[in-house]
Design a protein that fits this description.
The chain is α+β, with helices and mostly antiparallel strands. Helix content is about 60%, strand content about 10%.
Length: about 475
């Protein structure tokens, strides 16, 4: 059989060959069509960009997130993983083409003239043997083993890209929330300084009244204790701000990062999400896409394990020259060649290959369970974030009213004490209430901003009107 005939046979076998193993089908997700609290006529009122952190209109925040995405070691590691999987995919694709190797040998040997069997006198006792050849081997992908291997490599390549997106989404969210924590501490420090100034004024008032004989030592000691409490609170908040700044510097790769104090209230809140967000938007989440690519790879590995149990057909051949002299290597009489085909059939392996195939099927089932769990967790995260955003936003109005009332109560309590109508305990209680209500309002604003970030992360970066309408 000529080389051309064998090549034609190999091509026909490859074209008519089948792919063993199951073809991938996405598992059905039993999720509600929309999240809790959705209304039938709800439509999205605004579109959110993929760079969702820019919605807070803070240039410094935009700069910090950009620095984190560019400098963070987790992102660089994820990018290197993409490069690795790309190289693996190219290596697997190369298996579809024959491998050609070049080999050359040169030998010089001498025959003994004193043994019983000596070569004829026409054969020189010393001879050269020069040889070169191109050799090739090729396995026919009759059962689809190589094609399934490409499916695995391609799925791993896509999964590595989604893994990078997961890292970038998480990193942007953590950087943004750390920045909000820093701004919240700035606002709390400012409020505590105001509280400290108020308690300094109260302490001075008590001292004047004590010097005049209108206040007791108890009032004076209570005023001094309240002032010390505020000073200790200010010291603790200053410490927490320094720790938050260190974390922000690590996230952005700027260990010497310095951020001037700011005000949390200057950050505008993004619009509340529409009530009709469909659960189909979860398909954009990079972690879900990564989990599905892992599922595709596990499904293809089942086909590979099944194909290993079937006969394999391979082609081999070589072409070159062999001569006793270098100048004769390329002459026609020196030409050498061979071509052949091989068939390997597993006969007895004590059930090893069948067991390995069963193991791959079991791994596929595990991956399916992981995918379903990831989907359910994603739905819960979005539902939780929606609830948090709506409820925390509703709480802010009440907390603002509480702050206004507490400030007025402090003013009245101070006037009553100065006029001698009440004890200093009323002033202390009013001071504590005003301080706690103001800090509660600040922390609620931070919680609302943090919940906004959680929602953006849970939705894979936000939503827009076109996607929501199409998903419905």
């Amino acid at each position: 059989m000529t080389a051309r005939a064998l090549a034609g046979l190999a091509l026909s076998l490859w074209l008519t060959g089948c792919m063993v193993g199951p073809d991938y089908r996405r598992p059905a997700a039993s999720l509600p069509p929309a999240y809790p609290g959705a209304t039938a006529d709800a439509t999205p009122a605004s579109a959110i960009q993929h760079g969702w952190w820019t919605l807070f209109n803070d240039p410094l925040l935009n700069e910090l997130v950009g620095a984190a995405l560019a400098n963070n070691s987790d992102v660089r590691r994820a990018v290197a993983r993409i490069e690795e999987t790309d190289a693996n995919l190219r290596a697997v694709d190369a298996a579809f083409l024959p491998e050609v190797d070049f080999g050359a040998t040169a030998n010089r040997s001498a025959y003994s003239g004193t043994v019983a069997l000596t070569p004829p006198s026409s054969v020189p006792s010393v001879r050269n043997d020069l040889r070169f050849a191109l050799s090739s081997s090729f396995e026919i992908d009759f059962w689809g083993k190589l094609r399934r291997s490409v499916e695995v490599a391609r799925a791993q390549t896509l999964a590595s890209r989604y893994a990078r997106d997961v890292v970038m989404l998480s990193l942007a969210g953590l950087t943004t929330q750390t920045y909000f924590a820093l701004r919240s501490l700035d606002a709390q420090i400012s409020t505590t300084r105001t509280t400290l100034a108020t308690r300094d004024d109260g302490l001075n008032l008590v001292r004047r009244r004590a010097d005049a004989g209108y206040a007791s030592d108890l009032d004076l000691r209570q005023a001094e204790g309240a002032r010390s409490d505020a000073a200790a609170q200010l010291s603790e908040l200053t410490r927490q701000r320094a720790i938050a700044l260190h974390q922000l510097g690590t996230l952005t790769g700027r260990l010497d990062l310095a951020v001037a104090p700011g005000d949390l209230a200057q950050l505008p809140l993004p619009a509340l999400p529409p009530a009709g967000l469909p659960s189909a938007l979860l398909e954009r989440r990079p972690d879900l896409r990564q989990a599905e690519q892992d599922l595709i790879a596990a499904n293809a590995r089942v086909g590979i394990a099944m194909a290993v149990r079937l006969p394999s057909i391979s082609l081999t051949g070589n072409y070159g020259g062999e001569s006793r002299a270098l100048g004769l290597l390329l002459d026609g009489p020196s030409r050498i060649w061979s071509i052949g085909a091989g068939l390997t059939v597993p006969v007895f392996d004590a059930g090893k290959l069948a067991a390995l195939a069963d193991a791959e099927r079991a791994r596929y089932k595990q991956t399916v369970a992981t995918y379903e769990q990831t989907t359910q967790t994603a739905f819960r995260e979005v539902a939780d974030a929606l609830t948090n955003v709506r409820q925390i936003a509703a709480t802010e109005t009440e907390l603002q009213a509480s702050v206004t009332s507490a400030r007025e109560a402090l003013r009245l309590a101070t006037r009553r004490y100065d006029a001698g109508y009440s004890s200093f305990l009323e002033v202390l209680d009013a001071q504590r209430t005003a301080n706690l209500s103001q800090l509660a309002l600040i922390r609620n604003r931070q919680a609302l901003l943090s919940s906004d970030v959680d929602l953006m992360k849970a939705l894979g970066g936000g939503w827009d009107a076109a996607e929501t309408t199409a998903a419905k």
